[in-house]
Amino acid sequence: MTYSAFRNQQKKFPSAQGNIAYIDQGQGPVILLLHGVPTSGWLYRKMIDTLSKSHRVIAPDMLGFGNSDSPKGYEIYSEQAHAERLVGLMDFLQIDQWTHVMHDAGGLWTWETVKLVPHRISKLIILNTIIYEAGFHPPIRFEEGILAKIVMWSYRNGVTTNAMLKGLFKSGLKKNHLTEEDIEGYKTPLKEGKTRAMYYFFTQTCNKLPDFTAVLKTWNVPTKVVWGKHDSFLLWEPQKEQVMNDLNISDEDIHMLEAKHFIQEEKPDKIARVILDFLH
Q1: Spans of all domains in the chain
Q2: What is the mean pLDDT of residues 21-46?
Q3: Where are the alpha helices (DSSP H) in 117-179?
Q4: Rounded to an integer, what distance in angstroms lies between the CA atom of residue 189 and that of residue 177?
Q5: What global pTM score does this model have?
Q6: Across the beta sheet with 18-25, what order do the strands follow?
Q7: Vertex 67 angle, CA 199 and 32, to 5°
Q8: Contact present, 10 and 40 (Cβ < 8 Å)
Q9: What is the pLDDT averaged over residues 134-143?
Q10: Which CATH superfamily is domain 3-279 in?
Q11: The pairing of beta strand 18-25 with beta strand 11-15
């Protein structure tokens, strides 16, 4: 699938801060697919058709990413603001309950969503997600200010766009089989100027990771973990015991894959099978 074809399938939710693009495909129980930074719903393109054969799949581009708007400002990209808009999207679609799948920074937006509507997430699938500081090793961090803004400018003006993506996927994929068509879905939003949400993440979140320990300890839903065990950005082992205890996860609910960070690119069929087996 080309990125332009993917965008043609997206609909728009008019949040108070700007339009949010999303895929809404299939019928039945709802699965929400939540991306991270600096990706978008495009990350799940290889899984959507499989999952939507038996479920209704919602895959949004969060504000500031993908095909969604990227309004001026930075605090509007906080974890809490993302969660509020996500709940707004589900209200707009009249979806009361859903299975929640998240990746990377999508974990932060998920934990904030749990604060708002813990009763609406019926099952959880964790894919190489930000949970605790012990497992968090972002590839870059910036101090707030001019240097970080120059870097973001270089990403969106083509100066370092290709180099950044090349380095990201070299570090984030065990075997990089991405085509130019695949890369286009990651590069296009950057060259359209979608870097404000990234700026917030790399200058704020990365330097002061929110602590959601209290949230996780008091929230109990059936949970699966699917993790690329060679991920150098988000590590499972240093936080394994705490996550398993706090979320009441057993060993049989953990699936470690021969992959790195972007497991949706390397093992989409395997992940889809785990999700569907879990739900069935």
Answers
A1: 3-279
A2: 98
A3: 146-156, 161-172
A4: 21
A5: 0.97
A6: 11-15, 18-25, 56-60, 30-34, 98-104, 121-129, 223-228, 254-257
A7: 95
A8: no
A9: 92
A10: Alpha/Beta hydrolase fold, catalytic domain (3.40.50.1820)
A11: antiparallel
